[in-house]
Amino acid sequence: MDYDIIIVGAGPAGLSFARSLADSGLKIALIEKQSEAQLAAPEFDGRDIALTHLSVRILKELGIWTRFKAADRPSIKEAKVLDGKSPYSLDFDVKKGSLEELGYLVSNHVIRKALFDEVQTFDNISMRFDLAVTALSTNDRTASITLSDGQVLESRLVIAADSRFSDLRRMAGISASMHDFGRVCIVCRMEHERRHNNIAFECFDYGRTLAVLPLAGHQSSIVLTAPMDQRDAFMGMDNDEFSRDIQHRFNSRYGEMKLATKRFAYPLVGVHATKFCAQRFALVGDAAVGMHPVTAHGYNLGLSGAAILAKEIVKAVADERDIGAMALLERYSRKHMRVTKPMYHGTNEIVKFFTDDRLPARMARKVALRLANNVPPIKNAIRSKLTQTAEGGSLLPSFFGSQ
Ligand SMILES: Cc1cc2nc3c(=O)[nH]c(=O)nc-3n(C[C@H](O)[C@H](O)[C@H](O)COP(=O)(O)OP(=O)(O)OC[C@H]3O[C@@H](n4cnc5c(N)ncnc54)[C@H](O)[C@@H]3O)c2cc1C
Predict the structure, then answer these.
(1) Which residues have C-beta within 8 Å of that of residue 17, sequence separation ≥ 6?
(2) pTM over cut 0.90
């Protein structure tokens, strides 16, 4: 046996999962097709990731949170949801609740860099770069992979963390439902004249949606979604034209706005695997569930799923049980699925509801926003889902051994 566990994909999910098992004594390999240089100094990719309270708690336990500088983890204190041209908003804030922050924003490349640096400090985790996996085979005792350089590696368990378009998922014969929204998400950062006061805006404008999320100083993260056939028009605009367009779309709330980074375009495709495990094999991160970003839950679910699986494995190590046993993997699959399924389908329904511009849907949206604003149980339920506060206690008893 070359390793106890082989993780394919050193993205945020694969790295977090490796770190969560670092203290277990298991021998772990991370296989990544990108180069070491790309992982050691990841470039800004336009994504500023909204992290929930549960995710912050997990990142603290993993020793990652303290690696972020204060300016790299600005908080969200208020959130406003607007529909069409109406000034009416559904509001969430910290004053009326018991929280100090609704959540935090950390750039994807900052998360990846911190995880990479942390994982490098453990001798029992080895990273192999510039390698893809070309084949997977499992039997009741072992799981092996073939690498693009012809090497075969054997382990007790293989974990796929190789993105929502996971090759490993296909190799393991796990099907997935995919939903192509036919839309594109364009992300970037912008500077603006006025202060944002740590307010996050989600504006469901007709035909397009615009999220403006507070970063450090006078900067915000911009997430624009539009039909895919408008991608080239938005990406082709010169910087001034794009800046004016966003400022106008945002009703000049922050005064003059100016593009501060490159723009990045992501096609919007949601993916949910039908199960998260097979013989000596499991899916984590986007390979298990790849979310539409509107509810900002992709990486948050990746983190909580990895925590559930790591907890099962740590328990098995302590009890000297098989870490690749089917019963263990199925327990993980069931527990994680219980969280992901409603979140995935709920998010897709929200997208459908807020991008349907026919009159009955517009009317229904007006009613829905007012209902959510004025009926406390509805508002509290939405708040706890978005911030992941209610689940925090039960899902993650401290098991990483760091406290
Ligand atoms: C615009 C946008 C905004 C988002 N905002 C949020 C947000 O606010 N909050 C949130 O929680 N989530 C958000 N997300 C989702 C979040 O970015 C993803 O959930 C997260 O990046 C998934 O991490 P991952 O490690 O599973 O996959 P990835 O980041 O896709 O990483 C997969 C890794 O596997 C490697 N790989 C792939 N195939 C192979 C192979 N065959 N062999 C070896 N290596 C391989 C890749 O090189 C890569 O390093 C957003 C996503 C987008 C697009």
Answers:
(1) 7, 159, 161, 284, 285, 306, 309, 310
(2) yes
